[in-house]
Amino acid sequence: WKIYDFDGMNHKLGEKFTTAPSMCHGVPWSLDIYPRGDINSDHDEEYVSVILRNEGAKDAKARCTFRVGNCEVSAPKILMKAKKSTGIGWDNFIPRKRALASMTNGYLLVEIDIQVFIDKPQPLLPKGTHCRDMLELLESSKRSDVNFVVGGTVFRAHLCIIHAGAPVLADLAEGADSGEDIAIENVDSSVFKALLRYIYGEELPPSGMMTKHAREFLDVADRFGCVYLKLLAESSLVQLELSNSTAAELLLLAEAKNCALMKESALTFIKANAKAVMESPGWESVEKSPLLMTEVMKALAHGISAVTDADNVENMAATTLRRKL
């Protein structure tokens, strides 16, 4: 920028003028110049303050070097907001005396080298279709090699896939005679279908279905070795059903199904609501278990403390460990 008649400008401290926009790398830039300094400039000596601004409609990442005569300063790469929202510059860019001495042919030459950084375009990768393909395989029954019969409904599946997602169910099928249909008792057909869809395509059961059948999902996932679905059902039960009337029952269920999160949550709830829980129908069954009563007494006496991230994993509270995993 050539600033004509710079030495004749009568601007006071804190007063500025703005240059006309100049294009660089497709971005319009303007320069705010304070001939006698900004209000934040040092007052020991008169300075010239400069601020570069992005006049464009889009933000720009830029790195700049400002130069007047033999005075040169550089700024690191920053995000320059659009429409002059932000700027980059210096309150004490150059002493006014040096700026005046740098004038030639009646103007002050302010040079700015601007380097604009453009984000590298990311390749357009198609969304993976593996889960969808696996669900289509389940629905088509192509090359299926095992049949499960649940509540009168036949589910055709692939033993190798079942083995990966529910190994206990696969072991049950492998133990049957070749070609024999495998009857699955005490399981709702809709729950079993959701189990298969999770095994094949990691499709989670609809939230309404999980809310209604959380205990059934916990039972079938534990029964057939589908670990993540079991954790999901366990978490749903804790969130939806833990109350004064169910805490004792859920503690018993957690002990039977080896559910650490549910057990920890139930004990914590019992500690906070001991009197009400002890009046619930399930408490009598808890009293019949010396092991559970010992854990309840410990919880009442000492509490269950959340262990910090820095502590040993073996001693970590189940809630904290689940968050880390």
Task: Provide keyphrases for this structure.
single chain, Potassium Channel Kv1.1, Chain A, MATH/TRAF_dom, Apoptosis, Tumor Necrosis Factor Receptor Associated Protein 2, Chain A, BPM1-6, 13 helices, alpha+beta, SKP1/BTB/POZ_sf, BTB domain-containing protein, Serine Threonine Protein Phosphatase 5, Tetratricopeptide repeat
Report a brief summary of the structure:
With 325 residues, this protein is an alpha+beta fold. Helix content is 41%, strand content 23%.
Summarize the topology.
Blueprint: E1 2-4, E2 17-18, E3 22-24, E4 27-34, E5 47-54, E6 60-68, E7 71-80, E8 87-95, H1 96-101, E9 107-109, E10 111-117, H2 130-140, E11 146-150, E12 153-157, H3 159-165, H4 167-174, E13 182-184, H5 189-201, H6 207-224, H7 227-241, H8 247-257, H9 260-272, H10 274-278, H11 283-287, H12 290-302, H13 318-324
Parallel strand pairs: 11-13
Antiparallel strand pairs: 1-9, 2-4, 3-4, 4-5, 5-8, 6-7, 6-10, 11-12
Domain BTB: 144-208
Protein name: BTB domain-containing protein
InterPro entries: BPM1-6 (IPR045005), BTB/POZ_dom (IPR000210), MATH/TRAF_dom (IPR002083), SKP1/BTB/POZ_sf (IPR011333), TRAF-like (IPR008974)
